[in-house]
Amino acid sequence: MLMHLTPTSLPRPHSLSELGLAADFDPLIGLSEFTYRRGSEIYGEKEPAEYIYQVKSGTVRSYKLLSDGRRQINAFHVPGDVFGLTYGGNHRFTAEAVADTTLRLTKRESLTAAAENDGTLTRDLLRMTTTNLRHAEDHMLLLGRKTSMERVAAFLIEMDRRLTAAGILALPMPRRDIADYLGLTIETVSRSLSYLRELGVIRFIDNNQRHIVLVDKQQLAVFDRQN
Amino acid sequence: MLMHLTPTSLPRPHSLSELGLAADFDPLIGLSEFTYRRGSEIYGEKEPAEYIYQVKSGTVRSYKLLSDGRRQINAFHVPGDVFGLTYGGNHRFTAEAVADTTLRLTKRESLTAAAENDGTLTRDLLRMTTTNLRHAEDHMLLLGRKTSMERVAAFLIEMDRRLTAAGILALPMPRRDIADYLGLTIETVSRSLSYLRELGVIRFIDNNQRHIVLVDKQQLAVFDRQN
DNA sequence: CGGGTGCTTGAAGACTATCAATCGTTGTGG
DNA sequence: CCACAACGATTGATAGTCTTCAAGCACCCG
């Protein structure tokens, strides 16, 4: 069986062709790179979608805002991930660079136009959209029914799966982003992490406790026995 | 611009062809109807996906369970809606009839096989998947960041949009389903509805207060000013 | 070296959940 | 036909989880 290469769970970095976009299609796409500073906006919600993106390095957050500032981050995009796909013409989220980030850009129009005549490409889009849908479905369960401990454990497991090297997990995003991804506050996230540390399930490696975490996956999974 | 016909927001009933499945494709599909009793299972999570479905009459709930019984309903399917699509081979949810429900079934295999040679069909699948994704994205914001009042108001607005006739909203699902859709308990749902009634925003029409609600959309929207 | 930023920790509060009782409707059986 | 059990919804009282408010700490950078 073919391995599923997906926008949200790739070892990285990958080329577009490895993502399922036909290699011989590359020439049709105007590929260019662009670097975004930490905190800068890549696109805004409701803006016309001009490009689709692949993360070359760095991390991106994608979110929706309520009028009073409440924020829900629906996804983090790490190297290898493709994001910015929308079937309609407008973006449904705001995307920002969590850290300094380099992206590969592709004109959306050239892609959708090409998809008109290329069933394989359309199927690739379908597969990537399906992958996003799966992630959203799992995240609904987390947001609707899991406790704060389960959410944080699930987050660590997800991030470990997606961006760990050698058992060491370097979280690129601040607590606020984690909180807004999990539907919690930064204090609750912090307390959950502290508790996991007290239990010896995780460890902070560096003096600056912010970014580096060591995980004991076995025990961690106990806190979020996946359904 | 073409109106978007979507699995989750159709006036009903619709034929498959009206849903974007090419009319001339119908002959390829083994169309058959089946009726499910209230409460019976249509398919289970992780089961191989053999069919896709369109609701002819009735209502379907689609959900995930945690091992201890916590449930997250991700969607209700009402007449006209297509559901059961999965890009992979297995279902990712359990689907049950909320009320007595009649469905049109289509062999999934005949559909995906046909999609191999039919770009239009693949694009239709892409569009339907995208519609599901949009709904999931909006629901993540609701589950992650909205208050109980906002959730209930949003639910009433959604249901009003999708299945109201003449300003009267006949909710086909019990409180427990509403609660599990909104990430709340039945008591909180009930209290929120009572509060909206005290405020004169909604009304219960029949003596049996369970199913019929009258909505003042204007005021209701105030309780869930969409972002 | 001092201010800024992000994280942690503590205390108090609020919103929602839990536990429990009651009500109204439905359906069944004597 | 009526009584009563069963079920879903509502309402009340209490509890608990997570949030809010606040203070303190560590690191970074100018």
Detailed description of the structure:
The structure is a homodimer of 227-residue chains. With 227 residues, the first copy, chain A, is α+β, with helices and mostly antiparallel strands. Chain A folds into 2 domains: 127 residues, Jelly Rolls; 76 residues, Arc Repressor Mutant, subunit A. Chain A contains 6 helices and 11 strands. A 4-stranded antiparallel β-sheet of chain A has the order 1-8-3-6. In chain A, strands 2-7-4-5 form a 4-stranded antiparallel β-sheet. A 3-stranded antiparallel β-sheet of chain A has the order 9-11-10. In chain A, β10 and β11 form a beta hairpin. In chain A, α4 packs across α5. The N terminus of chain A is likely disordered. Chains A and B meet through β5 and α2 of A and β5 and α2 of B. Chain B binds a DNA duplex (30 and 30 nucleotides) through α5.
Please give the structural blueprint.
Two copies of one chain form a homodimer.
Chain A: E1 32-36, E2 41-43, E3 51-57, E4 60-65, E5 71-77, E6 82-83, E7 94-97, E8 101-107, H1 108-116, H2 119-145, H3 148-163, E9 168-170, H4 175-182, H5 186-198, E10 202-204, E11 212-215, H6 217-222
Antiparallel strand pairs in A: 1-8, 2-7, 3-6, 3-8, 4-5, 4-7, 9-11, 10-11
Chain B binds a DNA duplex (30 and 30 nucleotides) through residues 147-148, 174-176, 184-191, 193-194, 207-210.
Could you tell me the radius of gyration of chain A in angstroms? 18 Å
Main β-sheet of chain A, in a few words? 4 strands, antiparallel
Strands of the largest sheet of chain A, in order across it? 1-8-3-6
Looking at CATH, the homologous superfamily of the largest domain in chain A is Jelly Rolls
Structural class by secondary-structure content of chain A: alpha+beta
Q: What CATH architecture of the largest domain in chain A would you give?
A: Sandwich
Query: What would you call the quaternary organization?
Result: homodimer
Give the CATH topology of the largest domain in chain A: Jelly Rolls
Share of helical residues of chain A:
25-40%
Number of helices of chain A: 6
Mean pLDDT of chain A: 85
Largest interface: A-B, 43 and 43 residues
